[in-house]
Design a protein that fits this description.
The complex is a heterodimer of chains A (116) and B (111). Chain A is mainly β and 116 residues long. Helices cover 0% and strands 48% of the residues of chain A. In chain A, strand 7 and strand 8 form a beta hairpin. The radius of gyration of chain A is 13 Å and the shape is globular. Chain B has 111 residues and is mostly beta strands. In chain B, strands 2, 4, 5, 9, 10 and 11 form a 6-stranded mixed sheet that branches. The relative contact order of chain B is 0.35. The chains are: A mainly beta (116), B mainly beta (111). Chains A and B meet through strand 5 and strand 10 of A and strand 4, strand 5 and strand 10 of B.
Chain lengths: 116, 111
């Protein structure tokens, strides 16, 4: 049973470009969470999704950031017109249905975004 | 502001010694979890302790929870070089299903 997969592992973008980060949850998991981690910091919650629904996006900036989790395919975190301050590690986590985020989350290896 | 704050920020010990990390939080919680993060990797869940529990063990890990002091500790006994990592506590409170992470304790175990 493969774990949570994220790609790409490293992404370099110039200011103003778009960044697309992908996350495939563990098999059978229907809850996906995105977090951002700055160097020497803990994880900051961004958004919580279930299939085709955004449940909580309170941690996601209102502008330039969007997320989706379609019926088929991976969850996508999209950052438009990236700025240097977007440089960070972005982690995806998943949990099984019925857990509603309570308890253990399974994390992917992260995507390290560098904005030049 | 952070719900959970780990202490110390960094800890350096010799292999075989015990490592103790603490986590303090501000509001009442449903549960508290500890995660480990190796450099450049994602987080790995270590242990979850519920608000009505006081102590839990898992292998060389021992977690305590004192809800009156709003604090938890993670003890790693007989540490190994492979335990070198950052350790984070995460709390879930009220009706929130989103864990709130602290800044972490960076543990270095010297062989």
């Amino acid at each position: 049973n493969a774990g949570v997969m994220q790609n790409p592992r490293h992404l370099v973008r110039r200011r103003g470009q778009e960044a697309r980060l992908r996350c495939s949850p563990m098999k059978g998991h229907s809850h996906v969470y995105w977090y951002r981690q700055l160097p020497e910091e803990g994880l900051k919650f961004m958004v919580y999704l279930q299939k085709e629904n955004i449940i909580d996006e309170s941690g996601m900036p209102k502008e330039r950031f969007s997320a989706e989790f379609p019926k088929e395919g991976p969850s996508i975190l999209r950052i438009q017109q990236v700025v240097r301050g977007d440089s960070a590690a972005y982690f995806c986590a998943s949990s099984p249905p019925g857990r509603g985020g309570q308890g253990e989350q399974f994390f992917g290896p992260g995507t390290r975004l560098t904005v030049l | 502001s952070q719900q959970g704050e780990e202490d110390p920020q960094a800890l350096s010990i010799q292999e075989g010694e015990n490592a103790t990390m603490n986590c303090s939080y501000k509001t009442s919680i449903n549960n508290l979890q500890w995660y480990r993060q190796n450099s450049g990797r994602g987080l790995v869940h270590l242990i979850l302790i519920r608000s009505n529990e006081r102590e839990k063990h898992s292998g060389r890990l021992r977690v305590t929870l004192d809800t009156s002091k709003k604090s938890s500790s993670l003890l790693i006994t007989a540490s190994r070089a492979a335990d070198t990592a950052s350790y984070f506590c995460a709390t879930e409170s009220g009706g929130s299903y989103i864990p709130t992470f602290g800044r972490g304790t960076s543990l270095i175990v010297h062989p």
